[in-house]
Amino acid sequence: MGKTLINITVATGLIGLAVSTPVMAQDAVLFDGKSVAAVIHERDTTLGLAGDLLARDLKAVTGQAPNRSSDLKDCVRVCVVVARYDSPLVTTLARDAGLDPARLKGQWERYERVLVRSKTNPQTSYLLIAGSDTRGTVWGVIDLTREMGVSAWEWWADVTPRKVARLVVDGGNRTSETPSVQYRGIFLNDEDWGLQPWAAKTFEPEVKDIGPKTYARIFELMWRLKANTLWPAMHDSTKPFYQIKGNAEMARDYAIVMSTSHAEPMMRNNVREWDEKARGEFNFFTNREAMVKYWGERAEEVKAFENIWTIGLRGKHDSAMEGAKTPEQARDAMTEVFKIQRGLLAKAQNKPEDQVPQVLTLYKEVLDVYMTGLKVPEDVTLVWPEDNYGYINQLSTPEERKRKGGAGVYYHLSYWGRPHDYLWLATTHPALIREQMDRAYRMDARKIWIVNVGDIKPGEYLTQYFLDLAFDRKAFDQTPSEHLKVWTAQQFGADQASEIAAILTEYYDLAWARRPEFMGGGQTEPTRPNVISAYVRTGGDEAQARLDRYAELTRRAEAVGAALPADRRDAFFELVLYPVRASASLNERILKLDLAAVYAKAGRANVNALSDQAKAAHARIVADTAAYNGLGNGKWNGMMDMAPRRLPVFDAPIWPQWNLPSKAGCSVDASALTFTAGVPSVRYLSVYTGGQPGTWSLSGTSGLTSDAVSGDLNTANGFQQRVRLSYEGGETLAAGSVACGGKTIKVAARLLKGDAPAEVNRLITLPAVGFTHPLWQSSEPLEWEVVPGLGTQGAALRARLDLPSAREEPSARPITYSFATTAKADAVLRVIGLPVHPLTSANGLRLGVRIDGGPLQVLDFETFGRSEEWKQNVLSNSAVRTVTLSQLPAGQHRIEVYAMDPGFLLDRLEVRLDGAPDYYGASPAQ
C-alpha cells in the first residue's frame, strides 16, 4: 500500500478521533514473519472475549499465538488495543497522540480505528480500536478480522483461515457509521431436526440440550455477522432458555440483547414454562391473577440483563388468544394486558415504562386484532411480519411512521406450517430478500430486524445477506449477484468466485419456480399426500427441461468441488454442494417417477430406467446427508436431517417397474432446442427407441458443441440417451441430423433475436423489463423501478413506493409492450406478478391494462387470509390475472400497463395463443 500524507481534522458534525497535527498514513504490520502483534484489551468480560476472538484469529492466520494483556506496558513492538472510548487505555493513548476520544460519546455501536506511534519509543505502535460502546468496539475487532481474511463462517461452516507469511492492515484513520438498523438478529426456530439434536448429542452432551456452550458459539457467530439480538430456540424439544443455567449469563457476557418471539410475551416460553396443573388454564379472562404473577416473576428474574420485551398476549404456543371469541374481545383484553405488563416492567426496572424497550410483533391473528383499532403505546415498536413465505404483510402508513417506537420486521428463511414447510434447505431467493427489506427500510421500518434462520445450517449465506443489509444499507446498492460474488470470494477465493456465485444463483432461480420441499405437490396442516407434478401436465417437456437444468447445475458444482484445495472442500460441501445436489436429487426422484408414469401410457421403453434413476437419486440424498453429518470427524453429527417433520415429500416411494412390449423404430425428442442470440446456454436432445437395441450418431451441427456424437441404446440406459448441446452465443446455429434405426432425422433448432419477443409453441413471453418505450416524452422518472435478479426473467419491475394509490383512473403514465402475431386467433393475456401484499393498510394491489387502445381493465391482485389462491401463489412465487383476447387479429399489438398502487411487483406478461401448452411456470423454451 502506498504512503500518502493525510490531514485528519475535526469537521463540524464529524464523529471520530481528532488528530491535531498532520500524520503519515501507513500500514500496520501485525505479523512480520517472525513475531505477531500483542492484543491489549480492557479488563472487561465482553472485551476480554473480543480479545480472545482476535487472538485466536491472529494465531490461525500467522501460526503464532499473540501475547494478551490489559496493560499498555506489555506492548513491545506492535499491539492491537481493544477498548471503549472512555477506557484508561484509550485515555492514555489519546493524551500521548493528541486524540479526542470523547467525540464518540453517546454514539450507537460505532468505533474509531487508527495507528498510534509511541512518543517515548518510536519502535512501538498501537492499532487502536476505540468503541463508542461495547458492541461498537466488538465491530471494530470483527472488521479487523475480516481484513485479516477470516470468514464469519470459519467455525460454523469450516472455512478454515489460511496462513500468511506477512500480515499487514491499513493503519489509516477510519470511523464506522452507525448501523442502519438498530437491533439486528436471528430467531433460532424449528430446531428439532438439527440444532437441538446436534447440541444435545454431539456438541454439548453434558447438558443434553442447547446450553451455554452452544450459545457461546452462536453468540460468536452473531458477532462475526454484526448481529446484536437473539430470539432463542423455543420448541417443545428444547428446554427453555432461562431454565438452563448459564444461558442468560452467556448472553450478557457477549453483550447480546435477548428478546423472544411473537409467541413468547414477557420472556416466557409458555409451551414448557406454563404448568397448567400448578397454575391453571392459560386464559387471561378466567385466570388473570396467575398469569400476571407468571409475567412478574420473569420481569424480576432477568431485570439485570439487556432485553427487548415482547408484550401482548397470544395462546400458549403460537396460537390465538385463549378465551377470546372475537377479534374485538381480543383487542380489549390486549389493551388491559399492555397496561399490566408495562407496569410490571417499570417496577422491575425502576424506570418509566416508556424507557424499557418493548415490541409488539403483529404476527398472524395479532395483525387482525391490530386492524380492529388496537391502540399500541407510542413507544412500543411495531414489528411487521411477512406471510411466512417472504412477502411482508404490510408496512407503516404515514401516520404510523410518526410513532416514537418506530417499526421493524420479522422475516423467515425457514418455516413450519401451511400450506407447506420449508425447513430442510434454505432456498429463499436473495433478490426477494433484498427487495422486501429495501421496501421495509424505505418505509422507515428500521428499529429491529429479526430473521428466522431455523437451525442456522444450511442457511449460512442467506443469514449473512439479511444481516449485511441490516447493518449497512449501502449493501442495497449491490445487486444480489454482486453481493453473492463478493461473499463466495471471501469463502473460496477469487479464482472460483464467479462460477460459484453463478451456481448458487441458478440454485436459487430453480427453487424460485418451486422450492424442493414443495415438489411433492402436497400440503400440510392437515397433511395431504403427494400428487402428480404440474411439471408433467404438458407431456413432460417442462419436467425434462427442469431436470436438465439441475443436471447441468450439479455437473458444474461437482467440477468446482473437485478442483478446490483440500482445506475448502468441507466448506464447499456444506455451503454449496450439499444443498445443490440435494435439491437436484429430490427433483430427480419426483419428476422421473412422474415422467415414468406419463411415458408408460405412451409406451416409452425408458420407464423402468427412469424408476431406477429415481431410486438412485433418493439414495444420493441419504448418502449425502450421512456424509454431511460425518464431516470433520463427526463435528456435525446430527445437524442435517433430510426429512424434517417426516412429511410425504421426503418419503421413499414405491419404485414401480413396467413390462412393456418392445417396439421397432428410433425417435428424437428435441422440442426445446430454442436459443437466444448472444446468450450462451445449454439444451438437451433425447435419442430413443421403442425397446430394441440400436446405435445413433449426430452430424452436421454448427454453433453447438455436443458432449457425445454417437452412442448405444440398450437396456442399461433404458434405450434412451440424452445429448448435451452447448451454445456459446454465436450468430449461426444448426442442430444437424441424427442417424438412428436406419433413418436420418433432421433436428430443428431455433435462434431467437435477443431484442424482440417471439412466438414459441404458440406462446409469447414479454419480460417485465422488456417494455419498448413509454408513451410520453418527459424527463420525469418512470413510475416503475427495476429489481435486479428477481423473478423468472432475470429482473422484475416494482411500482415506486412513493406512488400514490389511484382512485379510479390511474394518474400514472403507462409503460408499453409490443408483440406481433401472424394469424388471427383466440388468445389469453396472462399478467404474472409476484404475490406481494399491499404496501400499507391504506393501499391496494392493482394494475391497469389497456390492449391496442381499448378500454382500461383494472386487475386486482390482493388476496385475503390463507385462501387457496394465496397458498398456490406462495408455493409458486407467482400471482396471475388473465384477460381474454377473442379473435386477436394478425399484426402488431400494444399492451399498456399502468401502476395503480405502490409496491406492485411485475414479473412478465404472456400472450397464450389458442393451443399453447399450459406450462406450470415460464416457458422452458425461452
Automatic annotation (TrEMBL):
Residues 1-25 form the signal peptide. It comes from the Bacteria. Keywords: Hydrolase, Signal. Coiled coil: none annotated. The keyword Zinc does not apply. Residues 759-920 form the Gylcosyl hydrolase 115 C-terminal domain. InterPro entries: GH115, GH115_C, GH115_sf, Hex-like_dom2. GO terms for molecular function: hydrolase activity. Gene3D superfamilies: 1.20.58.2150, 2.60.120.1620, Chitobiase/beta-hexosaminidase domain 2-like, Glycosyl hydrolase family 115. This is Glycosyl hydrolase 115 family protein.
